[in-house]
């Protein structure tokens, strides 16, 4: 079976609202606002998350890149974390715990609709576990 992309995303633009607000209010200070906005844009586009039919993957970096992945079947637990702003603007963290560890070692930070993503993950895992009817 070929690996299929189930979900792909990055940081929620709403999670970076403080970059946008501070950037707009300081735009008149020697371009400082533009730098702050640019930092927010760079941060938003350098974090990539994927859920496929085989694995989860996180990659980040602007000049150098770090990638971490885990097989779906090794995921034991998922934790969804949302603060006050995350609850109001519907973004949050999804933390994946893999077999053999006690901590959440793969974290999708500040994703849009974290509960919806959690459901997509479990659906992909259940689809993978079902025996194929041949």
SSE map:
Elements lengths: L4 E5 L7 H9 L6 H15 E6 L2 E6 L5 E6 L3 E7 L2 H6 L1 E8 L7 E7 L1 H16 L5
Antiparallel strand pairs: 1-2, 2-3, 3-4, 5-6, 6-7
The CATH architecture classification is Roll
Q: Stretches where pLDDT falls below 50 for ≥5 residues?
A: none
Shape: elongated
Number of strands: 7
Radius of gyration: 17 Å
Helix % is 25-40%
Count of individual domains: 1
Mean of residue pLDDT values: 87
The assigned structural class equals: alpha+beta
Strand residue percentage: 25-35%
Give an overview in words:
This protein has 134 residues and is an alpha+beta fold. The protein has one domain: Pleckstrin-homology domain (PH domain)/Phosphotyrosine-binding domain (PTB) (PH-domain like). 34% of the residues lie in helices and 34% in strands. It has four helices and seven strands; from the N terminus they run βααββββαββα. It has helices at residues 17-25, 32-46, 84-89, 114-129, and strands spanning 5-9, 47-52, 55-60, 66-71, 75-81, 91-98, 106-112. β2 and β3 form a beta hairpin. The chain is elongated.
């Amino acid at each position: 079976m070929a690996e299929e992309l189930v979900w792909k995303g990055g940081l929620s633009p709403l999670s970076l609202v403080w970059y946008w607000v501070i950037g707009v209010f300081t735009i008149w200070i020697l371009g400082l606002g533009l730098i702050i906005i640019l930092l927010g844009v760079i941060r938003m586009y350098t974090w990539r998350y994927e859920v496929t039919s085989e694995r989860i993957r996180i990659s980040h970096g602007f000049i150098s890149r770090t990638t971490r992945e885990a097989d779906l079947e090794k995921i034991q637990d998922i934790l969804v974390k949302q603060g006050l702003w995350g609850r109001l603007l519907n973004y949050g963290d999804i933390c994946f715990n893999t077999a053999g560890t006690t901590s959440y070692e793969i974290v999708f930070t500040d994703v849009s609709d974290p509960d919806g993503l959690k459901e997509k993950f479990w659906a992909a895992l259940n689809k993978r576990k079902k025996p194929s009817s041949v």
